[in-house]
Design brief:
Protein name: Helix-turn-helix domain-containing protein
Number of helices: 7
CATH superfamily of one domain: Winged helix-like DNA-binding domain superfamily/Winged helix DNA-binding domain
Helix content: 40-55%
CATH class of one domain: Mainly Alpha
Distance between the termini: 82 Å
CATH topology of one domain: Arc Repressor Mutant, subunit A
Shape: extended
Order of helices and strands: HHHHHEEHH
Organism: Methylobacterium soli
Structural class: mainly alpha
CATH architecture of one domain: Orthogonal Bundle
Radius of gyration: 29 Å
Largest sheet: 2 strands, antiparallel
Strand order of the largest sheet: 1-2
Number of strands: 2
């Protein structure tokens, strides 16, 4: 018997979403296949969150609960994944304990050269500039004052012929008929 109520286990509100998030993170290649083969899907999801944080900030300073929530796993699985990675020599854990008050989250650093090279290569494949494509206008002519069309005429493309249907009418003819019917 204890004076304190039993600890309630946190339960995900949507288990299917957590499972899908965990699988997506694990399959997105957080580490080289030779290293990834040592870990389960949930553990790979945790290590992906750690790797993303290290790639962004140089060190992962998230608490275990935040890592577990982002990865879609329980707190204990996140702890075990980090502990296994440390035991394999992939990352280091720097504890930040304080006497008489709450300790700060541990700092995780990736020390595996193979994993760091994998992260650099993956970071180089991402598009620059927020993922937006640059727009290139098709008509590069310059408008002169007083004109509404470009000074340099563009090449005229040949008109596409519509495919003949069973009734013998072409597609442009059917589009014109449909436009007349709408008027």
């Amino acid at each position: 018997m204890s004076l304190f109520p039993p600890r309630r286990r946190p339960v995900s509100s949507d288990r299917i979403a957590s499972r899908d998030r965990r699988r997506l993170l694990a399959c997105s290649g957080p580490m080289p296949p030779t290293l990834a083969s040592r870990f389960t899907t949930g553990e790979l999801a945790v290590l992906r969150i750690v790797a993303d944080e290290v790639a962004e900030k140089g060190v992962c300073g998230l608490c275990i609960d935040a890592i577990a929530a982002r990865a879609g796993v329980c707190r204990r699985l996140a702890q075990n994944a980090i502990r296994l990675a440390e035991g394999d020599g992939l990352l280091t854990i720097q504890e930040r304990r304080h006497q008489g008050r709450r300790s700060d989250p541990n700092l995780l650093r990736i020390i595996s050269r193979e994993w760091q090279a994998w992260m650099r290569r993956a970071r180089g494949n991402q598009p620059k500039g927020g993922g937006c494509k640059s727009l290139h206008p098709t008509d590069k002519g310059v408008l002169t004052p007083g004109t509404t069309s470009p000074a340099v005429p563009s090449k005229k493309l040949p008109e596409r012929q519509g495919r003949l249907e069973d009734n013998g009418s072409s597609q442009p003819a059917r589009v014109a008929e449909a436009a007349k019917a709408m008027r």
